[in-house]
Amino acid sequence: MAKKTSQKSRRSTKHVSFKGRMVMIGFGSIGQGVLPLILRHIGIKPSQITIIADEMRGGEAEARRFGITFIEKRLTRSNYRQMLAGRLGKGDFLVNLSVEVASTALVELCQEAGALYIDTCIEPWPGGYTDPSLSVSRRSNYALRDTMLKLKPRYRGGPTAVIAHGANPGLVSHFAKQALVNLARDTGLKAAVPTTREGWGKLARRLGVKVIHIAERDTQVSPRPKEVGEFVNTWSIDGFVSEGGQPAEMGWGTHEKALPADGRRHAFGCDAAIYLNRPGLLTRVRTWTPIEGPFHGFIITHNESISMADYFTLRDGKKVVYRPTVHYAYHPCDQAIMSMHEIAGKNLRQQKRQRLIVDEIVSGRDELGVLLMGHKKGAYWYGSQLDIHETRRLAPYNNATSIQVCAPVLSGIVWALENPERGLVEADEMDFARNLEICMPYLGPVVGKYSDWTPLKDRGVLFPEDIDKTDPWQFRNFRVS
C-alpha cells in the first residue's frame, strides 16, 4: 500500500516551474496525451502555451477548455520561420510532436532564438522517407541521425535540445541502463553505476551482453473490426507508416560473423549500424516478452537502434572492440497487423481512412521493454507492462501505448529545464535515473524477468531450417512477410 500511495503522490508532483512560452507543434495522440501531464507536473499557466497543428484530429475542444491558444496551420519549409517568429525567444520551449517538419530546421531555429527543444524522433521534410531519387541509405534513420549529429559541435553549450525522446527512442535507453545495473547486481558483478559513456560500454561488455532487442507487444483491442481501406492503430498512423516504409535498420554488433544477404553498411557516419534492402514493415524477427512469450516482431527502424549501439561502442584506438547488436522488435495491436497486411499488398500505399483507437479500447496492454541477451543468465527483459484499465486511472486522453510516450516527453522537458545549457543531447547521454523517476508513476508494473529463451528455441522441429547452431545470435532469423 505504501508503494501505491507514493506513486499516487508522485503523480501530483510539480517537478519544475517554467516562466517562458511553450509552443507545441502537432497535436495528435501524443500532443493530446502529454498536455495534461505538462499542466500537472510543470509550474506553467495555460496562457503560456500555444499549439500549432496542421489539421484537427480531436483534442481542440480540450485544448481550448484549458485556455490554450490553438493555431490550425501546417508548418512547411517556406513558412516555419515566419510562423514561429515572435513566438520563440530566449528561455522559451519548443515541443515538436509533428510529422514531416524537419527536426534539424527546428533545432537550428531554436538555437538561434535561445529556446529549448524536444522531439520524439528525427523527422525530415516531406519526401524524406519516400523520395525514390534518394538512395535507400539516405532514406534511413541512420542518415537522419547523422545529419542531426553534425549540428552538435556548432551548438555545444547552447540551449538544450533533447533529440528523439519518447518511449522508443527515449525511455528504452533509460531502461537499458537500469537493466545493466540490475544484471550486474544479479550476477554478482561488483561494479559502480557508470557515469560516463565509456563506463557503460565497459559494463555491457563485462556482462557479456551481445544483443539488445527493444521488444514490444501491444495487445489492446477495439470491439469495432477494422474495415477495408482503413488503417487502425493505437498511436500515430502517419508516423508508423513512415517508419515502416523506411529500410529495416539495426545497430550491428562486433560478435556478428557476417551481414545478412541483403544487409548493407553506410558509406558515411559512425558505422554503428546497418540496413536491409527491404522495408521494416515487411521484416520480422523472433523476440520475447514475459507475458506474451516468444513472438514475431517487425524490425521497424528507430533512432535508438543506432544511438544505443553507438553509445555502448568501445574502441582501442580506431578499432572497434565491442558493440552490441540493437534493434526494435515490434508487434503492434492485432488491428494494426491487419492494416499492415493490407498496406503491404498495395506496395506501401497508405489507406485513405485512419482510425486512432483510444476511448474505444476495451482490453489489452502494451508490454514495452529491453531484452538483453548473450550474458550468463541467458535473456533478461526489463520494462513496462501497462494495461488500458490502469492507464485510464493515470491520465486522460491516453491509451497504454501513448502514455508510455507521453511520460518520457514530460521527463525530457523537465530534464531540459533542469539542464538548460547542454546543447544537442540524445537519450543515451541523459541522466537515466532522473528520467525514470519522473516516468515511473505512469508506466504501470515495471518488471525485470529472466528467461532461457533464444531465437533458436523450438526451431527446426517440424521443418528443417538453415541455421548455424554454433552462432545463436546471428541474424538468420529474418523473415519477409
Describe this entry's structure for a reader.
The chain is of the alpha/beta class and 481 residues long. The protein has two domains: 162 residues, Rossmann fold, CATH 3.40.50; 269 residues, homospermidine synthase like (Dihydrodipicolinate Reductase, domain 2, 2-Layer Sandwich), CATH 3.30.360.30. 30% of the residues lie in helices and 25% in strands. It has 14 helices and 24 strands. The strands form seven sheets. Strands 5-4-2-6-7-8-22 form a seven-stranded parallel beta sheet, with helices on both faces. Strands 18-9-20-21-23 form a five-stranded mixed beta sheet. It has a three-stranded antiparallel beta sheet with strand order 11-13-12. Helix 7 crosses helix 8, helix 7 crosses helix 14 and helix 13 crosses helix 14. It is globular. About 1% of the residues have low confidence.
Instruction: Please name the CATH architecture of the largest domain.
Output: 2-Layer Sandwich
Sheet having the most strands: 7 strands, parallel
Name of the CATH homologous superfamily of the largest domain: homospermidine synthase like
Number of discrete domains:
2
Spatial order of strands in the largest sheet: 5-4-2-6-7-8-22
- As for the CATH topology of the largest domain, it is Dihydrodipicolinate Reductase, domain 2
Distance between the termini: 46 Å
What low-confidence regions span 5 or more consecutive residues with pLDDT below 50? 471-476
CATH secondary-structure class of the largest domain: Alpha Beta
Q: How many DSSP-defined strands?
A: 24
Shape verdict: globular
Question: What is the average per-residue confidence, as pLDDT, rounded to a whole number?
Answer: 93
